[in-house]
Write a structure and sequence with these properties.
Elements (H helix, E strand, L loop, with lengths): L1 H4 L5 E3 L5 H10 L2 E4 L9 E3 L3 H14 L5 E5 L5 H17 L8 E3 L5 H12 L7 E4 L2 H13 L9 E6 L12 E4 L2 H17 L6
Helix pairs in contact: 3-4, 5-6
Length: 205
């Protein structure tokens, strides 16, 4: 109702939208999905290759001779979480490292305090990870905090890698090794695509 009252010409989505609502919106407005997307065979989307990006950072971690690598993942209902998990698994298999699902942590939301608590528990187990791949920099910051709580040093005792290169990734100590997303270009490309769809109603979805 708000979109109709505002006389909206088109819509760019940047987060998860349940499929029934997404279908309803797509019937009323031209839509471009940015970053998080669904119905890719029906609706336009602009995103990075999460699997390839994950494999690049995992290769870096593995090159440091780390074999006990945990993943701190977000809610599995999100595409980015599923794709980054797939990249994590594929990286281990390609490196000949056995997959240990006890090192796979799915958190119900991107919550810093919740992550610190869960990661602290993992660090206190017998299978303490040598490295963490985190699907967001918020989780990576939580790993650094949790390591400090239990007397471990990053990167001397534990390697940490994040994802997104958000502003505070360079502010925390030590700075987070992270995957930088081309946020500006994602926005520009999404907007250009949406304008094309608005101006050309015959353009493919």
């Amino acid at each position: 109702n708000m979109l109709h009252k505002s006389n909206v010409a088109g819509l760019i989505t940047t987060n998860f939208i349940a499929e029934p609502l997404l279908r309803k919106l797509s019937k009323a407005f031209p839509i471009v999905q940015c970053c998080e997307y669904d119905l890719e065979d029906e609706l336009s989307c602009v995103s990075i290759d999460n699997i390839a990006a994950t494999k690049r950072v995992m290769r870096y971690i593995i090159s440091l001779k780390k074999k006990t690598i945990a993943i701190i993942n977000g809610p599995i209902r999100y595409r980015y979480a599923r794709e980054r998990l797939k990249g994590y698994y594929e990286s281990l298999v390609e490196a000949g490292i056995p997959v240990d699902n006890e090192l796979v942590m799915h958190l119900p939301e991107v919550n810093y305090d919740m992550a610190i608590s869960a990661i602290t528990q993992l660090l206190l187990t017998e299978k303490r990870p040598e490295a963490f791949f985190c699907v967001s920099d918020a989780y990576a910051a939580a790993v650094i905090k949790a390591c400090a709580r239990v007397g471990l040093s990053v990167p001397n005792d534990v390697i940490v890698a994040g994802f997104d290169n958000i502003e505070y990734s360079s502010i925390v100590t030590p700075a987070i090794t992270t995957v930088s997303q081309p946020r500006y270009q994602l926005g520009v490309t999404s907007c250009e695509l949406l304008i094309e769809k608005i101006n050309n109603t015959d353009a493919p979805s």
